[in-house]
Amino acid sequence: MDSAALLDLLGNENRRRILRLLARKPCYVTEISEYIGVSPKAVIEHLRKLEEAGLIESHVDDQRRKYFHIARNVRLEVTVSPYGFASKSAYPTNNSFDISTCRHLTLDVACDELDELDELLGALEELEQLENELSLAQRWVQSQLYDVLDQISETVGAGPESRIYADLLATVRTEPKSVGELGRELDAPREVIAELLESMADEGIVQRTERGWELTTNG
Amino acid sequence: MDSAALLDLLGNENRRRILRLLARKPCYVTEISEYIGVSPKAVIEHLRKLEEAGLIESHVDDQRRKYFHIARNVRLEVTVSPYGFASKSAYPTNNSFDISTCRHLTLDVACDELDELDELLGALEELEQLENELSLAQRWVQSQLYDVLDQISETVGAGPESRIYADLLATVRTEPKSVGELGRELDAPREVIAELLESMADEGIVQRTERGWELTTNG
Fold it and tell me: Which of A12, A27, A80 to mutate to test the interface with B (most CBs of B within 10 A)?
């Protein structure tokens, strides 16, 4: 599911209350309607949207009553800042993902070969702590990113449009690029890219060579 | 800003498009209206909501034209799963946050004392990689959490309500608790807690002692 569809679904307080309820236990329509104080008709409409998106599923019990439950694990992250608006949604990675391939990150948590209930509960506690630490780390990284972008902005003198300057500079940093390549990579019109490059060339920050545009500090 | 208010704001495609536009550069109403193909009146209403929430701000330039820009760094995380629905929003942590206090997490990234543009761009690249690795790690942790909760569920035999069983067991794991204490900690009615504990006592998973309810494996 893409993050836009997920944000549309989650942008409704009653749908969030339904999800919160279903995360505690499977429910049928009347139960949900009474719990959140919304007509069964409106509940059915919310459930239809959630079901179409694959977020919830239903099953019928012995009394032929239809119960809804959450079907999927999904995670959404949104960052809003003067330097960007980004949202991404993803399903939890399966176990075959190798965390040791991370270059800047090491995790220390034991969650293999757990047999006893006590070990499982211990692992649950550790994982919840780690989840919290990862959130804190994300916020720290965001703050560092803004600092670095602010400093780049000061160096380049680009003001509030500095994010696109920084993206441009980061893109030409490792290898020289043409205006066309930069336009495609940054999803911006060629004229905009060309204008930005010319103004940075005037400042002596970038230069055009036979290989394309590059940082003058590389020269 | 709480995550519910943020989700309400972000649950609208046109507001997301406005934020995406403003993250690139400050804009005035007519510009936004033309860019996203929505009437100026509707744009003004979206801007009002975003401004009231503190997400955007405006300033007036020399030609007395009112420009809007993103005012805040804010981060939102949402997790939906059969075991829970959780959302949290937070501002980036300032630099005084000490990442070394994390128990399960180590970061390896250099972003201190950067002077040259080339160093800044290098740090930007490292931080963006780390941001990506942290996202992957979060998804991995989610997947591990579900595995552990599934295993607890199998052990306890609680079916789809196992999240509340797991929370209960995790809460009594480290020290015995009374029904009243558990009700307050888990934000659930006393009767529900008492019933769950009795059923787990029948299974021999927990026991009531003079000090309160505790895991039988501790005994």
Answer: A80
Q: For residue B93, name the pLDDT band (cuts at 50, 70, 90).
A: low
Collapsing DSSP to helix, strand or coil, B186 comes out as helix
Query: Is the Cβ–Cβ distance between B177 and B185 less than 8 Å?
Result: yes
Enter the DSSP assignment of B159: G
Q: Which fold has domain A3-70?
A: Arc Repressor Mutant, subunit A (1.10.10)
Please say if the pLDDT value at position B110 is more than 80.
no
Confidence band (pLDDT; 50, 70, 90) for B49? very high
Residue A143's CB: how many other CB atoms inside 10 A? 19
User: Is A144–B95 a contact, with Cβ atoms under 8 angstroms apart?
Assistant: yes
State the smallest CA–CA distance between residue A101 and chain B in angstroms.
Answer: 9
* Same topology between domain A3-70 and domain A157-218: yes
Q: How far apart are CA B62 and CA A87, in angstroms?
A: 34
A44-86 pLDDT per residue, tens: 999 999 999 999 999 998 889 999 999 878 889 898 888 788 8
On chain A, the residues whose CB falls within 8 A of the CB of B147 are 95, 111
Q: A186, A183, A175: which is closest to A213 by C-alpha? A: A175
Higher pLDDT among residues B98 and B90, named by residue: B90
CATH for the stretch B156-218: 1.10.10.10
For A157-218, give the CATH class.
mainly alpha
- pLDDT band of residue A160 (cuts 50, 70, 90) is low
The residue ranges of every structural domain in chain B are: 3-70, 156-218
B71 in helix, strand or coil?
A: coil
Answer yes or no: are the C-beta atoms of A35 and A27 closer than 8 Å.
yes
C-alpha of B104 from chain center: 19
| Greatest mean pLDDT among A133-142, B12-21, B69-78 | B12-21
Torsion angle of C-alpha atoms A198, A199, A202, A207, degrees rounded to 10 = -40
CB pairs under 8 A between A and B: 350
CA-wise closest residue to B180 among B191, B164, B169: B191
Q: Which of A78, A85, A97 is nearest residue B140 as measured by Cβ atoms? A: A97
